[in-house]
């Protein structure tokens, strides 16, 4: 009797799994210009493939579920062939013979997509900023420096660190609703590499510059890459919500692959967290009739957190249906 019940339960679960897989395949919708075949390239991920070929990139979990031969959705290999099935019912990955000693799997979200942002703007306490290294002289007795120039600095070098970010000014960040002080943002100007620490003053060469650099600008150590070869984005376990504070480049309208600041910190999110950006609902008045109507929430797109601080976090826009802006709200992404 017990064996029969177990067998019946197993069959029920198997049937549900098969029906779920069938439903998944039917819900995947391809773009009209999707090719019949695509070969995975280095730098590809399920997310980027879904963004390119599916009408909705958030269908990537269904894309994986519909292809049980893909054991791990975070591990794709160069040379895997993606075949777009006739009838637009789904996508099937057809892996080629893999020589694992010669090639590494592709991370789900390659680090190079976000690495340029890791040492841009930072949140920092004022005393720590004021105690940091600072430029005291630009070689050639120039007043401004840019990429390729050398600067001399005063202060204590960080042991073992050869790369530094260059920063100026501190902007006080407050929550727009509660007016709570969230910290100070140091604006990034560029980066520099230590080339001589034996002279009267340490000397660094500017390796990148976003703005011209002056005497008095501060230098902070580059953070070590804590993410391995790439991120593995995931939806936070607990519900959360908050406000998009600003675009980190100072732009009013924010689009794909641009960075934003959010009013949640390390106690609520971790790097890789996926969040959905929404234009909040609001009341509008019809100018002709005077009638008050309610405009519903509008889903704008998704972001992935890449760096967290005590009260704030920085995130990268992964996809956007329309530009985002300060004051938009966010919540835990929904995988549907």
Describe this structure in words.
The protein is α+β, with helices and mostly antiparallel strands. The chain has three domains: 31-106, Membrane-bound Lytic Murein Transglycosylase D, Chain A (Roll), CATH 3.10.350; 116-221; 233-332, Thrombin, subunit H, CATH 2.40.10.410. The chain is 15% helix and 34% strand. It is built from five helices and 20 strands. The chain has helices at residues 2-27, 46-53, 60-65, 115-118, 126-130; strands at residues 37-39, 81-84, 91-94, 109-110, 122-123, 133-138, 150-154, 163-174, 181-196, 203-209, 218-221, 230-231, 241-247, 259-262, 274-279, 282-285, 292-295, 298-308, 313-320, 329-332. It has a six-stranded antiparallel beta barrel. It has a six-stranded antiparallel beta barrel with strand order 13-14-19-18-15-20. β18 (298-308) and β19 (313-320) form a beta hairpin. The longest helix has 26 residues, at 2-27. The protein is globular and about 65 Å long. Mean pLDDT is 77; it is low at 1-26 and 95-107.
List keywords for this structure.
six-stranded antiparallel β-barrel, Membrane-bound Lytic Murein Transglycosylase D, Chain A, alpha+beta, 336 residues, 5 helices, 15% helix
């Amino acid at each position: 009797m017990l064996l029969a019940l177990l067998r019946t339960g197993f069959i029920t679960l198997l049937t549900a799994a098969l029906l779920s897989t069938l439903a998944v395949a039917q819900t995947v919708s391809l773009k009209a210009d999707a090719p019949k075949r695509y070969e995975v390239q280095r730098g590809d991920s399920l997310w980027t493939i879904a963004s390119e070929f599916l009408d909705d990139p958030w269908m990537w979990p269904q894309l994986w579920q519909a292809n049980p031969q893909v054991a791990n959705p975070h591990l794709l290999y160069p040379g895997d062939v993606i075949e777009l099935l006739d009838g637009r019912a789904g996508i099937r990955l057809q892996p080629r013979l893999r020589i694992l000693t010669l090639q590494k799997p592709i991370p789900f979200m390659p680090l190079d997509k976000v690495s340029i942002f890791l040492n841009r703007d930072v949140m920092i306490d004022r005393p720590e900023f004021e105690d940091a290294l600072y430029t005291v002289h630009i070689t050639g007795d120039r007043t401004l420096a840019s990429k390729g120039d050398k600067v001399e600095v005063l202060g204590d070098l960080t042991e073992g660190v050869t790369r530094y970010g260059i920063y100026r000014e501190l902007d006080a960040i407050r929550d727009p609703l509660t007016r709570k002080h969230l910290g100070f943002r140091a604006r990034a100007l560029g980066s520099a590499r230590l080339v001589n620490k034996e002279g009267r003053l340490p000397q660094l060469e500017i390796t990148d510059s976003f703005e011209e650099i002056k005497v008095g600008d501060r230098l902070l150590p580059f953070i070590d890459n804590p993410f391995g070869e790439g991120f593995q984005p995931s939806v936070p376990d607990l519900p959360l919500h908050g406000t998009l504070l600003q675009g980190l480049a100072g732009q009013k309208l924010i689009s794909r692959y641009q960075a934003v600041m959010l009013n949640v910190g390390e106690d609520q999110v971790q790097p890789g967290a996926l969040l959905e950006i929404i234009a909040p609902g609001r009341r509008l008045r019809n100018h002709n009739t005077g009638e008050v109507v309610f405009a519903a929430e509008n889903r704008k797109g998704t972001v992935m957190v890449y760096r967290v601080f005590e009260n704030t976090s920085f995130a990268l826009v992964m996809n956007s249906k329309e530009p985002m802006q300060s004051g938009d709200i966010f919540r835990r992404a929904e995988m549907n």
